[in-house]
Amino acid sequence: MGTGTTRKGGASARTVRAEGRWTRRKDARPAELLAAALDLFVERGYAGTRLDDVASRAGVSKGTLYLYYSSKEELFKAVIREGLVPVYEHGERMVDAHSGSAEDLIRNLLRAWWEMIGATNLGGIPKLMIAESGNFPEVTRFYFDEVVSRGRKLVARAVRLGIESGEFRDLPVDQIVRLMLAPVMLMAVWRYSFAFCDTTPLDPDSYLKLHVDVLLNGLRATEPALA
Amino acid sequence: MGTGTTRKGGASARTVRAEGRWTRRKDARPAELLAAALDLFVERGYAGTRLDDVASRAGVSKGTLYLYYSSKEELFKAVIREGLVPVYEHGERMVDAHSGSAEDLIRNLLRAWWEMIGATNLGGIPKLMIAESGNFPEVTRFYFDEVVSRGRKLVARAVRLGIESGEFRDLPVDQIVRLMLAPVMLMAVWRYSFAFCDTTPLDPDSYLKLHVDVLLNGLRATEPALA
Amino acid sequence: MGTGTTRKGGASARTVRAEGRWTRRKDARPAELLAAALDLFVERGYAGTRLDDVASRAGVSKGTLYLYYSSKEELFKAVIREGLVPVYEHGERMVDAHSGSAEDLIRNLLRAWWEMIGATNLGGIPKLMIAESGNFPEVTRFYFDEVVSRGRKLVARAVRLGIESGEFRDLPVDQIVRLMLAPVMLMAVWRYSFAFCDTTPLDPDSYLKLHVDVLLNGLRATEPALA
Amino acid sequence: MGTGTTRKGGASARTVRAEGRWTRRKDARPAELLAAALDLFVERGYAGTRLDDVASRAGVSKGTLYLYYSSKEELFKAVIREGLVPVYEHGERMVDAHSGSAEDLIRNLLRAWWEMIGATNLGGIPKLMIAESGNFPEVTRFYFDEVVSRGRKLVARAVRLGIESGEFRDLPVDQIVRLMLAPVMLMAVWRYSFAFCDTTPLDPDSYLKLHVDVLLNGLRATEPALA
DNA sequence: TATGAATGAGGATTCATTCAT
DNA sequence: TATGAATGAATCCTCATTCAT
């Protein structure tokens, strides 16, 4: 998987002779391993995943794993650490760069989250982290600080913008943030848990749209009749 | 451990049911076992839970577990099966008996869910089921059919009531149902995953109140400005 | 092995019904396991010994070992700890009780050491400890303090007796002690290392006799020529 | 490590042997490798020593080891084979060349053994061989024949000289030989096992002197009073 | 019904060995 | 000649399950 696509980027292929096959391989390995591990951890949980399976899904032998990660736990930590943080860094730049209505910003944020995380296999990480929180308190704390908290802060900035500009009513920001995130987060979790049972599956786009519409409508300040 | 004292309380039950002196005990055991198993499964996951620990938490020996459940998997299934179904039966009777506004019904349903499930240790079951869905497809299907689907239907009836009565706008019911459930469900999952990291914890009551307020406000039909 | 002989002690066999078969078994287990472990550790070294082999030599399964010793290292420690210490306690009582010439005491001590340790399979412990000293510093220290040091002190008391009574010349005691112990110790080590190569094996009794004769003769005070 | 300096000394050897520029190096490698291997084998035992560590201590990569020794076992054999044999050849020439009293010869032999073996890191070989005798019977036999037996024969010649010349009593030679060797041998073994625990360490020179004094005194023929 | 000793299959981890470069 | 990435057999250890009492 990763190998094929990587090779496409012919630019680097030009230097193949200089780097040697192994060099290219060695550089690609960690990413391949993490991808395989993520898939299996999400599907079967930490304990239910055999390193043998991770290895063979990544197309290497069991021993090779240990050249890159010194234990199953380290592999798990790497999956969590390397997973979402980069995406959130992107998100922060997005908010920094924004100019326009809070409403637009929120729409964009939630949509971006879905597109970059929820709809990709990174979306399995929240489920994984929920499942294993009890067994890895330190990793959980890392995830909470680096992902959950940052995500909340991101959205909180947008909400505060809206309140300050008068777009939204003045409601407790941290609660609003949770209300905003819950449906998207849960939809991601759902994909990796109950989706296969669900005979009336959701269309993510329209669900997302409805969520934002209803929520923003509920928040809107221009609502004299309802107060 | 708790066994001795429990037996005491069985004195009256013994005469009432006119059964052998072990009957009360026999009935009580599974409940104790299931409670212990639920707690541990939720905390550590299925694979991470040792039957030894379940047994000692329930105050019995490991062998005794096998008198009641023929395998770890059966114990797990029982935890799921006996857990939420009775509560949902209660919920159905609640909707059947309701007369009044859809708004009130929804308020009552969500509050009842929280009080009977979210705030008790039954609230761990959704987390557990999410975590183990990949390893137990059949149990997951059972849970989905008997719990998730029923819950959705329950809420769907209330939403439809509101639409029919003109309280709510005419929006896709199944999506609205999900929007309604997501925050409460996630709050329950949170209690068993990230809560211990969260330095700004939520007050469930005010959060629930806000959720219903904002959501119902967003749904309200009297909203000419938004069309 | 241990089982059969244990059963002989009919006195305890009388209470068999009361104790049950397992009880007797359970009590005997640690000793059986330690005996098997000692033999194999001595023969193959720590790393070269598989717990599987220890178990099957003791007539139990691999898992049973772990009911008594929580790891291979703990088993090793137990082998060392339970091995020689009791014998040395016996030796100390021997010196305490002694009255007579220092020469006799030394003869008795060395002979007793050989009979109780060197000639039994406890004699493998010094070899084992020498071989593994680098890998288990703490155990080595324990062994040194509880066995080596005590043994030296024991013999030192006897030597000092002889010097004080005028039987021996006044020579550095700690060096004399080492000279006294070296041949017996090495003979024990030899049994578990090179003995199988040695086509001219030693008769321990006559060797021991010669050692004591030559050594005591060398120490003797009535040696005008050497002063 | 030592490589650079060693290479320097090879300048003349290169021209003498008229071989490729790597020849000197090629010859040097095994010595470096054997030295590294000896140190680690002695410290940790055969099984406890990783070839990775041997390689890095010798300053080469793991693969390089295999250019010189086809397996770990071959490396071990080489360590034993190349270790003491040359020294014993030297010892034999020493006895051949000797003229003088048996007493002097024995003093010289034991002192030479200590200086060339016991006090150097070759002294670890006896410990190593004791520890691994059970796992390498063939190597043990080699060692026994080429080292132990030769050493005994060497000393036996000296003892017989003394008996024939009337210096010593007529006692069983093979046992006397063992008595002679035991303290020095054990002192060497000690350095690599319990020395680090020993708070009252031995001065090898005075110990050796005392040993020879007491032993030879014990052997002396002019002892009418003691018979 | 209750116990807990015993079992052994399963999986994480290590490390000697190979081999493409 | 030298490297070090890759391999997989070997072994420790865990824990669900059994069964004699």
- Portion in strands of chain A: under 5%
The second-level CATH architecture of the largest domain in chain A is Orthogonal Bundle
Quickly count the helices of chain A. Answer: 12
Q: Which two chains have the most extensive interface, and how many residues on each?
A: A-B, 57 and 58 residues
User: What pattern of helices and strands is seen along the backbone of chain A?
Assistant: HHHHHHHHHHHH
How many separate domains make up the residues of chain A? 2
CATH hierarchy class name of the largest domain in chain A: Mainly Alpha
Distance between the termini of chain A: 55 Å
Low-pLDDT segments, ≥5 res of chain A: 1-20, 223-227
Q: How many strands of chain A?
A: 0
Could you tell me the mean pLDDT of chain A? 88
What structural category do the secondary elements of chain A indicate?
mainly alpha
Report helical residue fraction of chain A.
Answer: over 70%
User: Shape of chain A from CA axes?
Assistant: elongated
Walk me through the structure.
- Four copies of one chain form a homotetramer.
- Chain A has 227 residues and is mainly alpha-helical.
- Chain A has two domains: 2-76, Orthogonal Bundle (Arc Repressor Mutant, subunit A), CATH 1.10.10.60; 84-226, Orthogonal Bundle (Tetracycline Repressor, domain 2), CATH 1.10.357.
- Chain A contains twelve helices and no strands.
- Chain A has helices spanning 2-8, 10-13, 16-48, 51-58, 62-68, 72-83, 85-97, 102-118, 124-132, 137-164, 173-191, 204-219.
- In chain A, helix 8 (102-118) runs antiparallel to helix 10 (137-164).
- The longest helix of chain A is centred in the N-terminal third of the chain and has 33 residues, at 16-48.
- Chain A is elongated, with a radius of gyration of 21 Å.
- The termini of chain A are far apart.
- The model of chain A is unreliable at 1-20 and 223-227 (pLDDT under 50).
- Chains in contact: A-B, C-D.
- The first copy, chain A, binds a DNA duplex (21 and 21 nucleotides) through helix 3 and helix 5.
